[in-house]
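So, could you explain the following?
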Amino acid sequence: MIVEPYVMFGGKCAQAFAYYQEHLGATDPMIMPFRGTPAEAGAPPDWLDKAMHASIKFGSHTVMGSDGMPGHPPTPMQGCSLTISIDSDAEAERIFKALSDGGNVTMPMEKTFFASRFGSVTDQFGVSWMVIHEGAR
């Protein structure tokens, strides 16, 4: 069994995946638009090129996503975060800074009793993240 997160982006899936590729090193983005699928019939013209379904790789892990349904904005992400485990303080700081750009920091990146670097942020696309480097405490 494999459990993979599925994130709703409310019309910004392609932008989010491009950002994650550029700044987080994500790979293999796949975006299936509404156009050319059975869902095309119910989509307004400005929604045809939005992501009906998408996926992207973070190392060996996949995050799936969608722009959701036209006229139904997603509920803000609550009670759940995507977590990125990093193998150095410097890389954790870099990733956290990238996710913070245009986002909302909920816990600044700092040393904690459980990690040498830890921080949490909701990025500019509404996705909640935790960034951690356990390292030497």
